[in-house]
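Sanity check

After download, print the first record. It should look like this:
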Amino acid sequence: MHPHLNGYWCIPKKQDADFVACMEDIIDVYERPYARKRPVVCLDEKPLQFLGEVREPLPMRLGAVEKIDAEYKRNGTCSIFAVVEPLTGHQHISVRERRTALDWAEEIRYLCDVMYPRAERIVLVMDNLNTHMLGSLYKRFKPDEARRLAGRLEIHHTPKHGSWLNMAEIELNVLTRQCLNRRIESLAKLQREVRAWENKRNKKPTPIHWLFTKEKARVKLVSLYPDLTR
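Expected structure tokens:
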């Protein structure tokens, strides 16, 4: 027994019809075949704190690793946006100073006009955040432009406490392990590092194979489904 051990998890309430309705909708989206004109794309965000060194690290030498002082200084925060097309593995990572409705709107315009300019409709999976709404487009752009961008999207929100259904979270976890597991002191440096990582990742993209079906959900997550026998 280890009573002192614990972990953080997204825990939905039991017998939550709204949760399972959103979950099964997302799973249906992931089961669609690849369609170049209607790509399925996931978007997620991650905060990051800039950390600088207080003392110069001692360089690595034969028989000894680089030594980094435990003390550090905080240099502010930023938000990392990840856009991933699971069926092709293609992705785009951007770094912004904030995570506001305006930032999200600008990411959507980049998604529509730069990443998928020829798509008839972009099937977009996102977490259910207050900035991830079509109204955010109207906060950033004139009505004609906001409506144009909105018309390019087919939006599907993951349920509350169900962010694990967003496959962009997988790519952010890979980014964290391979690129962000160290101190990065500035926005400019982070943007350079992320751009290099993104370019390398896109040269040999890794598609994501989603294996969690509705049938599995109805067995493994049966407690989330309303009990119709009572």
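If your output differs, re-run the checksum step. Summary of this record's structure: The mean pLDDT is 89.
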